[in-house]
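Reviewer comment 2.1 asked that we show a complete input and output for one of the modelled complexes. We chose the alpha-D-glucopyranose case, as it is the one discussed in the main text.
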Amino acid sequence: MTNSGDLTWWQKTIAYEVYPKSFYDTAAQGTGTIAGITAKLDYLQALGVGAVWITPCYKSPMVDNGYDVADYYAIDPSFGTMEQMDELIARGRERGIRMVMDLVFNHTSEQCSWFVESRKSSSNEYADWYIWRDAKEDGSAPTNWRSIFGGSAWEWCEERGQYYLHTFAKQQPDLNWENPEVRKALFDIANFWADKGVGGFRIDAITYIKKPPVFEDGPADGEDGLYPVHAATANQPGILDYLHEFKAAVRDGRDIFMVGEANGVAASELGQWVGDDGVFDLLFEFSHMHVPMGEAEIWCRPVTWELTDLKRVLAASQEATATNGWYPAFFENHDQPRSTVNFFRCDGPLAAKAKVLGAVLLTTRGTPFLYQGEELGYGNATWKGVGEFDDVQTHAQYDFAKTEGLSDEAALAACTRFSRDNARTPMQWDASENAGFSTARPWLPVHDDYATCNVAAQEQNDGSPLQWYRRLASLRLNTPVLLAGAWRELMEDSEQVLAFERTLGDDRMVTLANFSNEPVTYDPELVAGLSPIAASEGIAAPGRLGPLEAVIWG
Ligand code: GLC
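Response of the prediction step:
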């Protein structure tokens, strides 16, 4: 690849994830709306965004905020109507912003009509659409698997006299992908949305769709006597056959992209998943998230890490997608704590930390995926008690921490550090009541810092994270070496600085990001012949970086 002209539209854009429930409320109801996204298209355009991933807004009982879909062909009334969704797709396209729908295909809601039928008997039309198993002889669950949200992954159904499998919450029964009718029904849904002119799909929890041939107990890894369902079922041989079928039925022949959410796929396996022979265009893999959060993501178990651990996995992902496939770069999404907390081991101003991360994200190779609010430099929220959390997983992690013997305070501290609700507090638009998100009381508390950390205030401040993200977004979109250039790590062994260069023909750019709150020095030869293009704290001297400072040379 020699110039950015060889790239497709989604490789040359910036993607932005919207969690609609928390983005902008046009209905004075305390939860965000689809019309609220349409109302903020100007804002997204000013950030250089060309693709907006909207987390599920289909009809849902909202046990997992839309990741429990009851009807894939309808918009949940709390978000608005199908007409408003069509309007959003159309208004977005006029500005070169394409919507990306979230396909939740590992499971449905228990209220989905397919499951409502399936649970009735083992002989009806939908009987085989989910994963049903008999109880063990003593009446207990078929295996000792622990669901991702905690507790057994099996739920007893009195009506049918069998257990069903749920990788996530018990209200999210897993679909049976072995059944060709299930696959066809899912591909039809994707085609329905593709025909509406969306720009692509994010495919949820995809590594769990193929179950193992034999279901058996695993060694318990916690005081609850259970074994993680992830270890038992993720990424099973044969999964790629289904996904090739998916790609042929939906993706082929369309100018869209598909990004899979693939917890459990290692960088070394990326080649099978993305690229010419792969099944997706991009893959969210989580190796860098596991660095601060731990491989098993058990929030109450302490994790220790160094910057070089993070750098090693980021470099591995870059190398794995250097010549095949394409990398979706991200530090945040709706399932993670805020990155300014997650990726730093030192104290220091959150705004400076956000700018350091922004420098990396917006100059690295791949398509950057920003998550709403990341561009403002939020920290985690303050949680006064476990009752303030809405998230089903946070409550499960809290209960698990208690079974592990933690005190109430320690269990709350673990949730405060890692809860997904940290990412889900309302977007902070201005300093007015409820941060300008809604005129009604928001569904989750607004972050304490909203009076100073908000879009309106940061637009007035040249040194703010928002202005830094806007500047770098524009730089990226107008600089071929940042879009198409090769990536090579520099200063591999540094525990303070994450650094890399991008090269394309004779062009070369270097990003140096100091993740520590101490000044550091580096070999000025690394930037010889280059000039500072952007400096997060406004000071750029060759060979020196200030505390929590990022500088881009080119
Ligand atoms: C994915 C989603 C997460 C959801 C889960 C179950 O990991 O990102 O929010 O809870 O799948 O659908």
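The longest strand covers residues 497-504. We note this here for comparison with the apo prediction described in Section 3.2.
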